[in-house]
Design a protein that fits this description.
The structure is a homodimer.
Chain A (H helix, E strand, L loop, with lengths): L8 E5 H17 L3 E2 L9 H10 L4 E3 L2 H10 L5 E7 L3 H13 L1 E6 L2 H11 L6 E7 L11 H13 L3 E8 L6 H17 L6 E5 L15 E3 L8 H5 L10 E12 L2 E4 L3 H4 L11 E2 L6 E5 L4 E4 L11 E5 L3 H4 L5 E6 L2 E7 L8
Parallel strand pairs in A: 1-16, 2-9, 3-4, 4-5, 5-6, 6-7, 7-8, 8-9
Antiparallel strand pairs in A: 1-10, 10-11, 10-15, 11-14, 12-15, 13-14, 16-17
Chain lengths: ~350, ~350
C-alpha cells in the first residue's frame, strides 16, 4: 500500500503506541510500581499526555531543555525528573525557573554537582529535590557503592536550597537483582543516618517486565516501550506487530538484481547498531538486509533477486526508535492505519 | 581554556575552514578542475559563500530541500547540482520552482526517474539538466556499465523537458583509475551517438588530492574537506590541526579513576564509526578512548587515571563532521580562536 506521504518520513501508529503504554502500565499497577516514562523516545507532549492518561505519575527527561519543551508543550505535565548531573550557570537558571512551574527533581553522583546546585538554589524561592544516582552495572554515571550513596544523601540533605529525594539508577537489562541489593543496602544506610528515602527509581525498557523482581523499586522509567524497535524485537521483548514507529522510504534505484537504494540514510535511520548487524528491518521482507547507510541513501541487499521497483515504498523498523525521532522535525501520525496528520517534535535536538 | 559556551556545542573554527577551502581550490586550479563543494558537511549559506569566494563554480546538494535552504539563504548561490534520483510529485514541483531561480541540474540512473522528470518538465517553462549517475566502485547508485550510461544519455536527450548534462559519479577513495576508464568509455559512446558531454563530475574528500589522476574529470565535489574529521585524520589525509569542527563538552561525572562521562552523546557526536573504533578524538589526550555513547552521555576511558575533573571542558574531533552538523540547530563560530557568535544551520534536517 502506497501512503500519500513524502519520503523519507517517520510514522507513528498511535493505536500501537496506546497498546504499548497500556501493557506496561497494567504490569506496574499490578506490582505497585509508579510509571514515570522517559520522553526521550517520543519527545512529544501529546504522547506524554497519553502516558499520563494511562496512569503515569510524571515524566522523565534527560536534559533541561527537553524538560522545558515538554512543560511548555502541555499544561498537564506537572512532575518532571531530570536524570542528569546538571552543571553551569545557564542550566541552573533554567532549572530554577522550571522548579517554580512544576514538581521537579534532578540527580547527582558527585560533590561538585551538589555544590553547584546548592550555591544556586540557596537563594532560590523553592528548594530543589535531588536524588543520588547509583551505578548498578551499566558503568555510565552513578556512585559505585551504597556507602557513597549514603554519604551524598547526607550532603544533599545538609546543603542549603536542596532536599534529598531518594535514589536513581539506570541498570543493565538483567540488573534487577543488583538493583535490589544495591538499593536495599543504600536505603538501610541512609535511614540509619536518620533520613527518609521517598523514591527509588529504576528504568530501561529491556528489563521492564522484570521490574518487580527488584521490589524495593518505587517507580520505573521506561522510554522505548511506547514505540519499540528492532533492538527490542531481536532481544525478544517486542514483536514487529507492536513496533509503533516505522520509517517510510521510497526505492530510488535498483542498480543490480540483488541491490536496491532507498531515500532514507543515516540522517533518518541513524547509525545506531545497538549490537545488531544492519540498520533496520524492512517489514514483510525478512530476506533483505540494510547493509550500508550514507547520509541520504540506504542500501538494501538480498541473497536472491531483491524484487523491488523504483518508486515503490518500504516501511522499516529502525534499530533504535529514540534516536530516529531526533532526526526529523515532525512525525506522521497514523490512526486506524491511516495518516492523521503531522505532529511537530518540540523536544527534538534539545541537548542542553 | 574554558570557553563561555553552554555545552554540548558544535564549534567551527572559521580560520581553519578558510585554509581548508583554499588548499583544495589551489590544487583544483592548478589541475584545471572546477570545484563544486558538497554542502552536506556545513549546511550553511555563509560557508558556501566562502567556497564561492575562493573560486567554486557552484554547489552540490543531496536533497531538494537542502537546495531550497541554500538558495533561500544566499542570493550568491546560482548554480546547484543535486546528486540524487528525484521521484514524486511534491519533489518535482519543488524542483521546477528551483529550476526557475538558479542553474539547476540533477542526476538519474534509471528510466523510471527519467520518465518522472520528463512528464513533469515537459510542461515546465524551462528544461531541466540531467546527468547520468555512474557506479565506479562504491556500489551505491549508478549504472554499472558505460554502455548503460550512453543509453540513458540518449534517452535524457530525447525526453521532452530534459537536457543531457553529462556524467556524475561518487567513487571510492582510491577510485581515480576506475573513474578515468569508466568515464572515458562512456564519453566515447555518448559522443559516437552524436551527443556532447559537457560535465564529468566526481567527488569525495578522501580521494580529492588524486582527483587529477582521472584527467577526464571536469569538476570535483568534495564535502568534508572544509571541516575535516577523525576519519580523515586516521586515513592520513588531514591532521588534528586542520580539523575545523569540534564538539565542546563538559565532564559531568568521574565515577571511577579511569572513567569520565561527558554531556555529549550520540545526539551530538552520532554513532557513525566509518570503520573506526571509538566515537571521536579528545584533543590533547591521545590516551583517552570514547568507548561508548548513549543519547546524552559519552563515556571516556583511559588505561591509567583519566585526570579529568567534573566541570572541565573537553574538545572532541568527531569521527564524521557532516553528520554532526545535522544534530544541532546552530554552530558556534570561532575566529582568531575566540567565539564570534552562533550561526543557525538552515539546511539541517532537510531530508526530503
Amino acid at each position: 500500500m502506497t501512503l500519500p506521504i513524502e519520503t523519507p518520513a517517520v510514522l507513528v501508529d498511535i493505536d500501537i503506541a496506546r497498546r504499548n503504554i497500556r501493557r506496561f502500565q497494567d504490569y506496574a499497577d499490578r506490582n505497585g510500581i509508579g510509571v514515570r516514562p522517559h520522553i526521550k523516545t517520543h519527545k512529544l507532549p501529546q504522547m506524554a499526555e497519553l502516558q499520563l492518561d494511562a496512569g503515569a505519575i510524571g515524566i522523565t527527561c534527560q536534559k533541561v531543555t527537553e524538560a522545558e519543551a515538554m512543560v511548555d508543550g502541555s499544561a498537564r505535565i506537572k512532575d518532571v525528573l531530570i536524570t542528569y548531573n546538571i552543571l553551569g550557570k545557564e542550566k541552573l537558571a533554567r532549572l530554577e525557573r522550571l522548579n517554580e512551574r512544576v514538581i521537579l527533581s534532578v540527580v547527582a553522583d558527585n560533590q561538585t554537582v551538589i555544590d553547584g546546585l546548592s550555591v544556586h538554589f540557596a537563594h532560590a524561592g523553592k528548594p530543589l529535590t535531588v536524588l543520588v544516582e547509583c551505578n548498578t552495572g551499566a558503568d555510565r554515571c552513578g556512585v559505585a557503592m551504597p556507602a557513597e550513596a549514603a554519604t551524598l544523601a547526607r550532603r544533599i540533605s545538609d546543603a542549603s536550597g536542596l532536599r534529598f529525594g531518594g535514589l536513581m539508577t539506570y541498570p543493565p537489562a538483567d540488573g534487577a537483582a543488583r538493583v535490589q541489593s544495591f538499593m536495599s543496602e543504600a536505603k538501610r544506610l541512609i535511614e540509619a543516618d536518620g533520613l527518609k528515602v521517598p523514591t527509588i527509581t529504576s528504568g530501561g525498557t529491556p528489563g521492564m517486565m522484570e521490574a518487580a523482581e527488584a521490589p524495593i523499586t518505587t517507580e520505573y522509567r521506561p522510554g522505548t516501550y511506547i514505540y519499540n524497535d528492532r533492538s527490542l524485537v531481536v532481544r525478544g521483548v517486542a514483536t514487529w506487530e507492536n513496533c509503533a514507529l516505522t520509517v517510510l522510504a521510497t526505492v530510488v534505484s535498483v542498480p543490480a538484481e540483488n541491490r536496491a537504494i532507498i531515500d532514507a540514510g543515516s540522517k533518518v535511520l541513524t547509525s545506531d547498531l545497538l549490537g545488531l548487524s544492519g540498520y533496520g528491518h524492512v517489514l514483510g521482507r525478512d530476506d533483505i538486509r540494510i547493509d550500508q547507510l550514507s547520509e541520504e541513501h540506504g542500501r538494501l541487499v538480498s541473497d536472491g533477486p531483491i524484487g523491488l521497483k523504483v518508486g515503490e515504498q518500504v516501511r522499516i523498523v529502525p534499530n533504535h526508535a529514540c534516536v530516529v525521532t531526533n532526526m526529523v522535525d515532525a512525525v506522521h501520525v497514523l490512526e486506524g492505519g491511516k495518516p492523521k496528520g503531522q505532529w511537530p517534535i518540540p523536544a527534538r535536538g534539545c541537548v542542553l
